[in-house]
Amino acid sequence: IEKRYLRKGINLIPFWSEFYPVYLNEVSGKPLLLYVKGNFNLLKERMVALVGTRNPSRAAKDKIRMVLGRFKGAVVVSGLARGTDRLAHEKALVQKLPTVAVLGHGLQMIYPLENEQLAEEIITQGGALVSELPWGVTPKRNYFLERNRIMVGMSEAVVIIEGELRSGSMSSANHGAEMGREVYAV
Questions:
Q1: Is the Cα torsion angle 103, 58, 172, 128 positive or negative in sign?
Q2: Are strands 47-52 and 75-78 parallel, antiparallel or unpaired?
Q3: Which tens digit of pLDDT belongs to each residue from 30-48?
């Protein structure tokens, strides 16, 4: 099985691997296996999750730039979703910071489709795509909530950039509080 994934450029990182994210290893119900396309060495680095609304304000870019300055040297983790997640990955790439996109489906596709090019840039510039779901699994609503759990679990802190009260951003904030992570809101 592993050879089949390696031919697709995907590494399998089990929870006992030295490359499995340290903070994620502390999480109850952690995934036993991560599928990683790109630079899996980043999973050992210090990480901060940036999440937020799908409809960010014009000021969101400045807010993200400010947050990236505050967490200099950290790998930027987000979910490759529309809006704030996309901006976080783009700003990280512009500032030559490593970034990791955690997906709510298998690595055979990118959702939303308009982020395919961004996903390629993430890998090309030394970042990674990560999923707990195997090849062939397609997006479902509950997978994205589980993805949030992994993004936060990998990170030492989670920063909410403009989020609604009932949203995936608040789900991430709640996960962060439950996991004992630093939770910030901008």
A1: positive
A2: parallel
A3: 999 999 999 999 999 999 9
